[in-house]
Amino acid sequence: MKSLGFAAATSETGPIGPVSFSVLLVLVIAAPLMRGGNRQIALIVLEGIALAFLVAIALRGRYWAGMVPQGWPRVPMALLALSPLWLAVVYLLPVPAAVWSATAGRGSYLELLDGAGIAHAAWLPLSLAPDATAVSLYAGIPVLAAFLGGYLARMRQLRTLLQVFVALSFLQVGFGLLQIATGTESVLYFGSYGGRPVGTFANANHFANYVAMGLAAYVWLGWTKISEARQDYTEGRAPHPPSRNMVAFWIGGGVLLVLGVLMSRSRGAAVGGLLCGLLAFALTLTLGSRRTQRWGTTLAILATTVVAAVSMVGLNFIVTRFELIGLVNAASIRGMLAAGTFDGAAYFWPWGAGWGTYAVVFPRFQPSALVGFAEYAHHDYAQLLFEGGIFALLLMAAFAWLAGARAVLLTRTAMRQRRLGRLEMVSAICGLGLLGFLLHSIVEFNMHIPANAIAAALLAGVFLRPMKHDEEGADD
After folding, report:
1. Most buried residue, 180, 337, 438, 439, by most Cβ within 10 Å?
2. Which pTM was predicted?
3. Structural domain includes residue 1
4. What is the DSSP secondary structure assignment for residue 123, as one 8-state letter?
5. How far is it, in rounded angstroms, from Cα 55 to Cα 187?
6. Cis omega before residue 350 (within 30°)?
7. Do 476 and 231 form a contact (C-beta atoms < 8 A)?
8. Torsion sign over Cα 386, 387, 391, 395
């Protein structure tokens, strides 16, 4: 069944009704507008929108029956979905000071207070900076809302969501081109350091990571449009097969998004996000229909797309970011940050310093060779261990369990059928977009940028969504 546009998308029955779907769209649109949501006022607005969405779907609880198939691992899903709540209990519920002092890494803090003659409370929360932990857990509300949006949305709603996300990605690229064209001192940077495009973000890496995820969503939309046109022709509903102009149009859009990633000169986005976006493109060519392309043809199309994008920015413009000296310097700084972060994680193991406390607690572990203030570890997984200890490991294990099960299911389906249907394809492509985000997070802090975390959570919800509940079926 074809998408009937916004009106049809909001008329679906299910947990996400017209009102909640409209609120979800507002969340997706608002997320990147002010420094990627990484400002206090912007984040508060996003949290309010997300709460409105969660309340709206909670009021439609009668539609939840049957949304989760039998045998689906509900415990890992509950651990992830309820994490803001149970982490608040773990880190913010006060415990006796004697118990707190005996907890790994905390005794020395009370000794310092006692030595200075400063009184402390008889009961203390596990977090070393409770206010920072509360702020961090509140920031998880929009991420949860986006995840549930991708997980519960019907197919037509999902298509509209991804269309909006892709449109925002194109707008980011267009704005980035304007920033480059108007120079490093342009007012379009809004006070950020000029030179590389940042769009509405504060950092070129976060800009590129967002656009790379948009590329994966764009691949699915293009494949859906072309495959539907081909199916209409096959079944006699259209007089002609998909035209070459249509195919060229969609490929041209992909080239523009690839250009956006490349012009950012973000090494992590190019190696992680862009690679996964191209893999998504290859997946549609090889498993997207009964008439799949040969690998040689697939590689030729991918190479043409990349060459076209590279030719627009210049090969030297890209290659200079991968010069040995630059790579060594960046690796040295990030390596020292990661080493200090892992030292801190070991010191506070197994409980961690508390969610959101990194900027406050890390200076104690910062290597002397590092100059300045490190607000983030530039290694999201190291920072998660520093702050969350065994609980962060539990969350990562729960997601790995779900992601691994879904990857096995998709692989078995592809091997058995030699193709992927509509539901399997959107899951696989969004999974690849999410993989690019996860790979980039090894050297960045994209998980701490609300717009990127919201986009990744939306893709994660689609990747893990049930395969059987959608009323449109999985036919192609």
Report:
1. 337
2. 0.89
3. no
4. E
5. 39
6. yes
7. yes
8. negative
